[in-house]
């Protein structure tokens, strides 16, 4: 079901949760507001695109009860609160997590490191604090890691050098300290096409 790039307003109807055969739901690029309803009955849903709306509220556990979820694209909304540890529920399936340009706060949880199928992790342009989890090196399939324009601190984990599939790394607009590891520079020569 795709209704993206219209001017739809109001909240997302909870009745969508009754469409239990849905594999893709795209309501992106509208003027939808309110919170994200409970989609936990959508047991076949693999792709959820809700970016570029005016959705509020927090990341609820029901989003991560979707056992076949491969892509969760919620960028450019007004979603607040922390990234929940409950995200580990989609560890075996999730390949793309897009949470850019929201109002997320708190640390980047080490629970993200259990998402071993992840190819794309977009957390940029939020209000996230703390350090990058050292365990990110467990995301061996990761191709894009963008955390720019947050309030992150500390040193860059040495383990980033082990992400040999990485093609894009965006870390600008934070307050990282220390030296840039020569091994990360080598990674740029070997694979990275975007590094800022």
Number of β-strand runs: 16
How big is the Rg? 17 Å
Determine the strand fraction and express it as a percent band.
Answer: 25-35%
The rough form would be described as globular
Q: Helix count, per DSSP? A: 1
Binned, the helix content reads under 10%
Helix/strand class: mainly beta
The residue ranges in which pLDDT falls below 50 over 5 or more consecutive positions are none
Biggest beta-sheet profile: 8 strands, parallel
What is the mean pLDDT? Answer: 93
The helix/strand series, from N terminus to C terminus, equals EEEEEEEEEEEEEEEHE
Q: What distance lies between the first and last C-alpha atoms, to the nearest angstrom?
A: 36 Å
Strand order of the largest sheet: 2-4-6-8-10-12-14-16
């Amino acid at each position: 079901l795709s209704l993206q790039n219209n001017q739809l307003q109001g909240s997302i109807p909870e009745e969508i949760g009754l469409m239990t055969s849905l594999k893709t739901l795209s309501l992106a690029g509208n003027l939808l507001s309110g919170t994200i309803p409970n989609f936990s009955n959508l047991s076949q849903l693999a792709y959820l695109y809700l970016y570029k709306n005016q959705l509020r509220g927090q990341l609820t556990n029901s989003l991560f009860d979707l056992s076949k979820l491969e892509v969760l694209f919620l960028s450019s909304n007004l979603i607040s609160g922390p990234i929940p540890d409950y995200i580990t529920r989609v560890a075996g399936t999730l390949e793309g997590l897009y949470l850019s340009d929201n109002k997320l706060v708190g640390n980047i949880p080490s629970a993200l490191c259990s998402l071993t199928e992840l190819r794309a992790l977009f957390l940029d342009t939020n209000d996230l604090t703390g350090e990058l989890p050292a365990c990110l090196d467990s995301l061996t399939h990761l191709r894009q890691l963008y955390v720019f324009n947050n309030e992150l601190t500390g040193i860059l984990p040495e383990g980033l050098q082990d992400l040999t599939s990485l093609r894009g790394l965006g870390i600008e607009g934070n307050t990282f300290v220390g030296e840039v590891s020569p091994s990360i520079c080598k990674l740029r020569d070997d694979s990275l096409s975007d590094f800022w």
